[in-house]
User: Fold this.
Amino acid sequence: MKSAIAVEKGAERYADGDLHPFDQKNEMFKRPLWDPMMLDLGKKFYFDRISPRNTPGYTLYDQALVNAAWRLEDDCAQGVRGGKMGMYAWDWAGKFSYPRVRKGLKVKVGDPNLMSRNIKKAATFFGASLVGICRVDRRWLYSPLYLITREGGKVVENDLPETLKYAIVIAIEMDYEGIGTAPAHPASAATGLGYSRMAFTAGLLAQYIRGLGYQAIPCGNDTACSIPLAIDAGLGELGRNGLLITPEFGPRVRLAKIFTDLPLTPDSPIAFGVWEFCQICGKCAEKCPSQSIMRGGPTSETHNISNRENVRAWHINAETCLAFWVANGTDCATCIRVCPFNKPWGAHHEFIRWVISTQPRFNRFLLWVDSALGYGKKKAPQRFWGGSSLTPPDILEE
Ligand code: SF4
Ligand code: SF4
Assistant:
């Protein structure tokens, strides 16, 4: 049953005036490095040590899980700091070590459709849950970039080559049970694992494309805004919670992209009733612990410099959102957990998605059913760990 239809406009459908590249230093995770208003919060966010608590979801088991889940992103990619290293290196790392292949070979692309199918197969083989392709709209690039370095924040020009005309956007599904505990640590672990899998999948796919003789630049959150690229690539729509909502997993995905000059066929952007459903829903706004999500209709009004100008949507107040993360001692994801589009796979959920996309007059009833059945309620972190047998650990101080 097909719930999504192809539409003409990608992320441009939300434009309410001229769109310009976003200055990355205004992005929420970068402002604590330079914005006097955010310095104190940033110090706490980036440097405070968080003691484990004897509260389910906040124990040392939970903290260790988060820490392990982030390992690949933190040590071998660093997309949240600016990328360009490890799995997100911009150039060919090493050589064909196995099997050993002569240098300088290049496949001839006769049919971009076939090439696109080939790339999508490789992407899912490496771990992508969803893959879409778009032409690169350079208005979605960060410009200038703002990198987090050992010496502090650094403004640099975005030197993504114009010859890389295509973006392959991959979505990585996050663990349903983990996100179900949001805003406790297992949800952060699901997020961290999403980031590590982004780096793993995007890095390997880029290396595959290089092996075919073409340029490929893999990126996590760095270099360009992922959500508009994902919308352009037909992966989903923008939700009230400021996130990409996909037909398959709702907002329970993380996004990465690979820029390339490999000739490909772009996918069509899609719509499947998210815009209309968000108008009558508002669960994310109601349940957000910091009230950072707008109620009412979409608007071009922004909260602060972390919002993009000239976009008609529901802007998130990232300042109050980050303040909650600091108070919570980890991140959050409540706006992912409660969203009615966040469902595990199931034929009945497929059917509901089809109704939402084709029969919007049932939206209020479906929203009522969603709440009545208890979807979106916080799950006990003990359940994530497989029962209540895990008691808070005795911690031995070294
Ligand atoms: S992450 Fe949490 S605090 Fe931030 S907007 Fe979503 S629900 Fe609100
Ligand atoms: S919770 Fe409701 S309003 Fe918020 S993004 Fe999901 S569908 Fe839209």
